[in-house]
Amino acid sequence: MIAPSTTAQHLPATRGQIFSWALFDFANTGFYVIIITLVFPIYFKNVIAGGSEAYWGRTISFSMLLTALIGPVLGSVADATNRKKFLLAFFSGACILATALMYWTSGGTFWVAVALLIVANVGFEGGTIFYDAFLPEITTEKNYGRVSGYGFAMGYLGSFAILLIVLPILTNPAATLADTRMTFLIAAAFFAFFSLPMFYVVREYRVAGTLPKNLIRLGYTRVRETFRHVQEFSAVRKFLLAYFVYNDSILTIIAFSGIFAEKTLGLSIGDLVYFFLIVQGTAFIGSVVFGLITNRVGPRTSILITLALWIGIVGGEFFVQTKEMFFLLGAIAGVALGSSQSTSRTMMALLTPKEKKAEFFGFYDGFFGKASAVAGPLIFGELSGQFGERLAVLSIGLLFVLGFLLLLRVPEPAYNKG
Question: What's the whole-model pTM score?
Answer without folding.
Answer: 0.87
